[in-house]
């Protein structure tokens, strides 16, 4: 199959914009991307549980504004807080994988 040179791989876009894997700028981008993904996961699980941000905050001993910041990828989250929100607040189980 002939390779179409008009397409650029996603990895090439990342390298051009944020540098190589391991570069400081690239690591900062990847951390923000993962924070955003965690926020989206929490938001989706909260919605599936038919809970408001306020209800989740009350159940986990946090504030609605904190839940909002996490869901919008605007706040770092400690593992203990992630555990409390997902397992205590939403009744889900956390499983971490390290590659």
What does this structure look like?
The protein is mainly alpha-helical and about 100 residues long. About 60% of the residues lie in helices and about 0% in strands. The longest helix is centred in the middle third of the chain and has 25 residues, at about 25-50. The protein is elongated.
As a whole number of angstroms, the C-alpha radius of gyration is 18 Å
N-to-C CA distance: 32 Å
In the predicted model, the low-confidence regions spanning at least 5 consecutive residues are: none
Fraction of residues in β-strands: under 5%
Category by helix and strand content: mainly alpha
Number of contiguous helices:
5
Largest sheet: none
| Counted beta strands | 0
What does the overall shape look like?
elongated
- From N to C, what is the helix and strand string? HHHHH
Mean pLDDT: 90
Helical fraction: 55-70%
Summarize this structure as a short list of keywords or feature phrases.
mainly alpha; 99 residues; 5 helices
Topology record:
Blueprint: H1 10-18, H2 24-48, H3 53-60, H4 64-71, H5 79-89
Helix pairs in contact: 1-2, 3-4, 3-5
